[in-house]
Amino acid sequence: MKNKIENYIKEVNSFSADNLQELEDFRVKFLSKKGIIPALFGEFKTVPPEERKEMGQLINELKITVQKKIVNLREKLKASSHNEKQLYDLTLPVNDNLGGRHPLSIVRNEIIEIFSRIGFSVSEGPEIEDDFHNFTALNFPEEHPARDMQDTFFIEKDPDIALRTHTSSVQVRVMENNQPPIRTISPGRVFRNEAISARAHCIFHQVEGLYVDKGVSFTDLKQTLFYFAKELFGEHTRIRFRPSYFPFTEPSAEMDVSCNICGGKGCNICKYTGWVEILGCGMVDPNVLKACEIDDREFTGFAFGMGIERITMLKYQVNDLRLFFENDLRFLNQFRSSVD
Ligand code: PHE
After folding, report:
1. pLDDT in tens, 10-48
2. Does ligand 1 lie within 6 Å of residue 65's CB atom?
3. What is the per-residue pLDDT for 85?
4. What is the CA(241)–ligand 1 centre distance, in A?
């Protein structure tokens, strides 16, 4: 019996398996109810008492050797099947699960592209602004009701620090640090304390533009924005200007484009007028130039500002602005193939 067990131990030590089935057969051969080890324990009952200790130890040694072998071989087989999985299959189609640009980024980039073609640079500035850059330099007098036009999220009072309500603040910074000619647009996030609805949100995105030089006139303003609207919405787009008021421009106007959700027939986005307001604009008020230390007798300028959400809604016929902020993949996936 001793010889038999020692031979089994040798056999186990030299055993190896190429796959999990071979390993399972090995386990059954030794450990299952009708396997070798239970049979040896059965035989053990007939061993004379003086040999029992030695035989018992040998059978146990065999059992432990078998168990260790199984654990080791199982690990090895698992590791090698893992390696096989990591081999690359170059015939597989390209992973189509890549991300895509957010529609607001697509449109922002398009707006930047159009203006950069006619010589506008891009400037950026802080989202947390002081009162001077957001209001005072832009000709909002202290306590003037015009400050209520844009409901502000204040962070600190006296001196006032707030989330910027428009990116006109960036243009003040550009004018402070540069002399004309200045031709720049400032895209960015802005904040207003407004109720959230299909048409408004308390966080949204703007692109504002500024052109200051000698002899800049309202004709330049109109022609620039006409070019922009046709590039963005297509040749067929109609445009109209309506007189308006902003503290920082004089004269001021709002520009409408024909509503391309309903084609001008009237829908809830254009409030059944056939027109959608897309931007505010005007000639830079001389007080703004003065506040930024630009000589208002030598230079004139125009400025404009638009909300990216509004324009994206028109371009892609989205009828609820809140969709841009919900990150619902069913919505976002529709823009995946768009070029940016
Ligand atoms: N700053 C204005 C706004 O946020 C937009 C605007 C910019 C209007 C420049 C006129 C000129 O509504």
Report:
1. 999 999 888 888 899 999 999 999 999 999 888 888 888
2. no
3. 61
4. 14
Q: What is the pTM of this model?
A: 0.71
CA dihedral over 310, 312, 315, 321, signed as positive or negative? negative
State pLDDT tens for residues 140-167.
Answer: 888 776 566 668 888 988 888 999 999 9
Whether 308 is in the pocket of ligand 1, judged by its Cβ within 6 Å, is no
How many Å apart are CA 220 and CA 228, to the nearest integer? 12
Domain boundaries, the chain: 2-85, 103-338
* Residue pair 279/303 in contact by the 8 Å Cβ criterion: no
Give domain 103-338's CATH number out of 3.30.565.10, 1.20.1260.10, 3.30.300.30, 3.30.930.10.
Answer: 3.30.930.10
For 10, 69, 136, 250, 289, the CA distances from 296, given in Å and listed in that order, are: 101, 91, 17, 13, 6
281 lines ligand 1 (CB under 6 A): yes
